[in-house]
């Protein structure tokens, strides 16, 4: 289903700032939110993502968000963030999808992510996910304390992250539930932390 495209911060945009975006933009299926060049403050609101795309118009060097992006427990579908610098809030993940009762994917590409405890956290459980991956990152650079925090199938490709690559939230996830695809390796001996040497390798459930 194709949704509606909204824009923020441009000369003819729907909204002047991210704080002006109503929750209904997120809850309607398939919305695209275009963030124009500049520095914008992202509100500390748990939005009900529903197949939502947030994309920087002009790329990550020009489109800067200050504040963490949070998805509520009502979030669902496949959600995408790309082309942004995200200066996340300290002590919380820079991108955080809360635990949901249904599949909720978060896929992040071509972003610089700083300031958060994790670059990307997705709390959806493997029981709600299955395959394909519920969490994926591609071409991201993160200086957050750690890289990823998830409880379900995960992939990371061509990305650089400070600290541990990957920490499962409950730390009891079976190897088959957390899958690394190229540039990530998961081993049960690491007790949930992807700290091995990065190699070009694929793991299959």
Give the gist of this structure:
By secondary structure, the protein is mainly β. The chain contains one helix and 17 strands.
Describe the structure.
It is a single chain. The chain has 205 residues and is mostly beta strands. It has one domain. Helices cover 2% and strands 40% of the residues. Strands 1, 2, 3, 5, 6, 8, 9, 11, 13, 15 and 16 form an 11-stranded parallel β-sheet that branches. A 6-stranded parallel β-sheet has the order 4-7-10-12-14-17. β1, α1 and β2 (32-36) form a beta-alpha-beta unit. The longest helix is centred in the first third of the chain and has 5 residues, at 23-27. The model is unreliable at 179-205 (pLDDT under 50).
Q: Report the biggest beta sheet as strand number plus sense, adding barrel if it closes.
A: 11 strands, parallel
Number of distinct beta strands: 17
Structural class: mainly beta
Number of helices: 1
Radius of gyration: 16 Å
DSSP helix fraction: under 10%
Low-confidence sequence ranges: 179-205
- Morphology: globular
Q: H/E order of the elements? A: EHEEEEEEEEEEEEEEEE
Strand content: 35-45%
Please state the average pLDDT score: 83
Termini separation: 30 Å
Q: How many domains would you count in the coordinates?
A: 1
Tell me the layout of helices and strands:
Elements: E1 5-8, H1 23-27, E2 32-36, E3 38-41, E4 46-47, E5 53-57, E6 63-66, E7 69-71, E8 77-82, E9 85-87, E10 95-97, E11 104-114, E12 118-125, E13 135-142, E14 146-151, E15 154-157, E16 160-161, E17 166-168
Parallel strand pairs: 1-2, 2-5, 3-6, 4-7, 5-8, 6-9, 7-10, 8-11, 9-11, 10-12, 11-13, 12-14, 13-15, 13-16, 14-17
């Amino acid at each position: 289903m194709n949704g509606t495209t909204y824009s923020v911060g441009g000369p003819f945009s729907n909204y002047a700032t991210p704080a002006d975006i109503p929750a209904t933009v997120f809850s309607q299926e398939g919305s695209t939110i275009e963030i124009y060049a500049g520095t914008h403050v992202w509100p500390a609101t748990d939005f009900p993502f529903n197949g939502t795309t947030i994309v920087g118009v002009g790329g990550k060097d020009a489109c800067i968000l200050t504040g963490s992006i949070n998805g509520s427990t009502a979030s669902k579908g496949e959600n995408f963030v790309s082309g942004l610098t995200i200066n996340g809030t300290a002590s919380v993940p820079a991108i955080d999808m809360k635990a949901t009762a249904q599949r909720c994917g978060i896929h992040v590409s071509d972003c610089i992510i700083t300031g958060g405890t994790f670059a990307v956290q997705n709390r959806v459980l493997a029981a709600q996910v299955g395959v394909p991956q519920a969490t994926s990152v591609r071409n991201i650079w993160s200086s957050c304390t750690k890289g990823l925090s998830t409880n379900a199938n995960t992939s990371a490709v061509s990305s650089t992250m400070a600290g541990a690559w990957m920490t499962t939230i409950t730390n009891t996830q079976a190897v088959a539930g957390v899958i690394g695809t190229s540039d990530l390796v998961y081993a049960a001996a690491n007790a949930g932390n992807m700290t091995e040497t990065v190699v070009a390798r694929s793991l299959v459930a």
